[in-house]
Records
---
Amino acid sequence: AQTVTQSQPEMSVQEAETVTLSCTYDTSESNYYLFWYKQPPSRQMILVIRQEAYKQQNATENRFSVNFQKAAKSFSLKISDSQLGDTAMYFCAFILPGANSKLTFGKGITLSVRP
Amino acid sequence: NAGVTQTPKFRILKIGQSMTLQCTQDMNHNYMYWYRQDPGMGLKLIYYSVGAGITDKGEVPNGYNVSRSTTEDFPLRLELAAPSQTSVYFCASSYLTQTQYFGPGTRLLVL
């Protein structure tokens, strides 16, 4: 079974600075997808970024980028130029391709951006 | 595109009552999912569907039922509500098993 671990329960960062959120996962498969979802106080689950395991290039979406280390099974999220609106809970998630595959979530990390 | 919509946004139920949480998506996604999120926790899969007429259990299906008569709709039925079902419920959809897009959630309180 696949597992996703987010070992930091919470982090804090000053506005305009950079922060990195950690995530590790465990799987014996070589092809899979990884995601970071953001959940602000409104509770909406918002997709931040997605990475396909077969792609060596790290995904980037504006101020958000990942450091995908396949051999180490690590998938960290870097947020540059942090903004107050980045304050949220962040979930790392994993899914295998194919029918009947389930999205496995980590427990999440609470990020607070200080003004 | 409205994406994934859920109704109601919030509901209070008495123990033993029943209700249906509605979920609709307009992205023509074949896969749909129901999750619950307990306070301070990640999401747990209740049921999912790979297409109209096909549903299957997830991690925590007890106390719930689903049906999928159309591509767009995937209602979740709670029978005999219990305090343990107090949670936030999310519906999601995806094309095949790729990126899942979530609805805004339904907050349910069972007293």
---
Amino acid sequence: EVQLVQSGAEVKKPGESLKISCKGSGYSFTSYWIGWVRQMPGKGLEWMGIIYPGDSDTRYSPSFQGQVTISADKSISTAYLQWSSLKASDTAMYYCARRGVGATSMDVWGQGTTVTVSS
Amino acid sequence: DIQMTQSPSSLSASVGDRVTITCQASQDISNYLNWYQQKPGKAPKLLIYDASNLETGVPSRFSGSGSGTDFTFTISSLQPEDIATYYCQQYDNLPLALTFGGGTKVEIK
């Protein structure tokens, strides 16, 4: 079964760093792009960026460039989203999702990771 | 950057009704338009890809059409299990971007 399994919920204080993960299984992890999507409480979906684990080619939405870092470790089929200094406005649900080979869409999604940033 | 305008932002319809949602791109995106369903507390699910192709396992009451800048998503006969928020998403290759529309919340009247 093809699946993406994300790390668990996080509660952090402003200024702290954080790295959440997304582990792929059931397919060739290095052959598909993995994207990250933010959903703030009660709001819509926002595309943050995407990485190709095969060569770590990474692209960011202009809205998120410089705010987060996307990375991947192909040896353990895991992609990451990290912050160096969290803000309260980073409180959201974060989803990873796979972009199909040569596709324009995201066909497999993780279950989501809730990040809460509060003092 | 390509902007996506989705409408309406919400709608209420009866079981069995035909429901239509539109998505407009700020520039020509060919058929690079996808539709997702998100039920409360769940991850989004791909329903339609490349404007009109039904994802495997998705009921045939869901359909999509359009090309260029104007796209339509239709539920031919609304069912109680279709209560969700629906999002369009465009794909741009240069630069690589997958931008979502604002979403349409579908409720039962």
